[in-house]
Amino acid sequence: MKGNSVRQIILDTETTGLEFKLGDRVIEIGCVELQGRKLTQRRFHRYLNPERAIDAGAQAVHGLTSEFLQDKPRFAEIAAEFIDYVRGAELVIHNAAFDLGFLNNELALVGAESLARICGGVVDTLRLARELHPGRKNSLNALCERYAIDHSGRTLHGALLDAELLAEVYLAMTRGQESLIMDLDAAPNGAAPLRDDGDRPRLKVRRASAAELVEHQRVLAEIARESKGRCIWLDQGPAS
Questions:
Q1: Which terminal Cβ of the chain has fewer Cβ within 10 Å, N or C?
Q2: Active site residue 157
Q3: DSSP 8-state secondary structure symbol assigned to residue 18
């Protein structure tokens, strides 16, 4: 579990296309900072001139044009500032391999170290979401809807907006992990801490209602449908 001093950077990029190995470049970087799981006001946001055309498919996703980016700085001009911002932090990225590939390519082009040497690790929220929600859609939009996070302003992809939304999603997905120790040690409603000598109240068992059981089966059926029948919970038989 992470301590309260951990510094994390939620990061997203927009690019000219899908393949940096074929010459595609980063055209927008958006980052927000979490310090001890709290958003700070320290952000990093830059549009970049890629010095090449933007693929029509990519432009349809993010809406950025060559004309808009023509007077923006090149990556080499902001590389030192970007490195200083992310240095030592843990990066939190959705589908991390994509963004890391592009950013490491940009860093290599200016003779800088890779993010693996600059930063303190990476959390891939897409991988985390797939572990938490197997067989379900785990796009950023889908996760916002699942965790009741307002994404109505996301008509197009934008690196800073997506980083802000991802920060909320990440905190929602991981809040149980961070609060476990505090929950175990805290006494409810200011009561005296429970003694570890057997003097504990009897636990109350709350059974699921008929309506909750029906909803549970509906969700399992949805998981089975989306995972093409691979739902281990259904294989275990009905809940007792």
A1: C
A2: yes
A3: S
**Does position 172 have pLDDT exceeding 50, yes or no?**
yes
How far apart CA 189 and CA 3 sit, in angstroms, is: 25
Q: Answer yes or no: is pLDDT of 16 > 90.
A: yes
102 shares a domain with 55: yes
User: From the candidates 62, 133, 157, 216, which is the catalytic residue?
Assistant: 157
Distance, in Å, from the CA atom of 175 to the CA atom of 138, rounded to the nearest integer, reads 18
Q: Are residues 99 and 149 in the same domain?
A: yes
The reply to whether 155 and 127 lie within a common domain is: yes
Domain co-membership, 29 together with 73: yes
Instruction: Retrieve residue 182's tokens.
Output: 């505090």
DSSP secondary structure of 55-111: PHHHHHHH---HHHHTTSPPHHHHHHHHHHHHTTPEEEETTHHHHHHHHHHHHHHTT
- Domain range spanning residue 221? 202-235
Which of these ranges, 29-43, 142-156, 157-171, 182-196, has the smallest mean pLDDT? 182-196
Q: What is the dihedral of CA 26, 27, 33, 39, to 10 degrees?
A: -140
Residue 23: pLDDT over 50: yes
Rounded to whole angstroms, how far apart are CA atoms 139 and 145?
Answer: 10
User: 165 with 227, same domain?
Assistant: no
**Domain shared by 86 and 170, yes or no:** yes
**φ, ψ for residue 121, nearest 5 deg:** 130, 175
Same domain as 209, residue 115: no
At residue 158, what is the residue type?
A: G
